[in-house]
Amino acid sequence: MSKIMILTDSCCDIPKETIEELGITVLPFEITFGGETFRETFDKTTEEFYDMLEKFDGIPKHSQLSPLVFEETYTRLYNEGYTDIISVSINSAGSGTFNNSIIGKNDFFEKHPNAEMRIFNIDSRCYTVFYGYPIMEAVKKIRKCAEADDIVAYLEDFFNVCAIYAVPYNLKYAKKSGRISAAAAFAGELLGLKPIIEFADNGTAMIEKIRGEKNIVSKLVDCAEKRMIPQTPYILIHGRDDTLAKEVEKEMYKRTGRKAEMFAKIGAAVASNIGADLVAVLVRRKNK
């Protein structure tokens, strides 16, 4: 019988208690604030990180996961009797972690040429619960005896069709980190404008400019509703404050008759690059 493990990194923003409940293997990114380094998700709570970010004048750093970390993890899981490992990584355009997961796989099979274990390496092509949510759903499918190939197909379909539409309240972190190209091109802050940024397909794009904070909810809902497949689940994403996310859900419910599938909070790796204050919607896109 097959024994399947989902392996991912902490940028998936799955809460620690859910990781433990579902038995997912999560490799933590290390976040560095000046001289202090800690493991995302495991060493500090998200709330503690937000407090640190507010008091810190610079931009926190996080490094990619190394091939050795992956090789050692594959070896441990192999020794535990797993027949299939599905490794899902942070967007390969923003981190070398996905490529390192493949190098680690090659190193593992060099040392274990006769290992009867399959390793599937998947680039999520995005961040946060864009891959955290389908990973949680994938574990449920595994518990219902789904095969590894079916799980891989489900995940790749999700990553192909979905997108996040986000409104960051402050672009300081996005511009300084340089990881969000759409933010670098945005020049309307002095006029009180805020961007809606699409995250999907290994990239970012500025979809619209919103004038005034009072218009964020209506404009973000307009954007999501226009692009989403009708009557499909959506997910709301927020940072430190979930007030606007709750308002977005109310408006989405008025228009679609559906409440959010879940509310998700961004973690340290994501907040380091976009700030701790944003509201976003994850949807399945019509044109995909």
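^ that was protein a. below is b, sequence first then the tokens
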Amino acid sequence: MQNLDQNIRDALSIDMVVDITTIGRRTGDPRRIEIWCHLMDGQLYLAASPGPRSWYANLYANPQVTLHLKDDVKTDIPVRARPITGEAERRDVFTRLSAQSAFRQGQGLDVETWVRGSKLVELIPEAD
């Protein structure tokens, strides 16, 4: 996150609803969706409730993603997606995310259920 300016970091700490563009794993076409992005301890995460997700399959096949900020700050940020698959790391991240009220709001988060079945991705900004 050190290569993102302070305005972008501030925006990501407030405006959690962003868009991402992935590349379709079968078609090669860009696919843009709205999703929540979590800024925690200087790292960016995408997390989705348990179940299959096309965006996840796309970024797993091609980790080059564009993060679109669209509220207070409007910008496109090239990032590399790193799916988090290790159980210990997943438990750590979900435990920390569950402590954030914005993540818990309306979610009824059960950390162990999320560790077992959810999608979890770290977004790493590309160097300039």
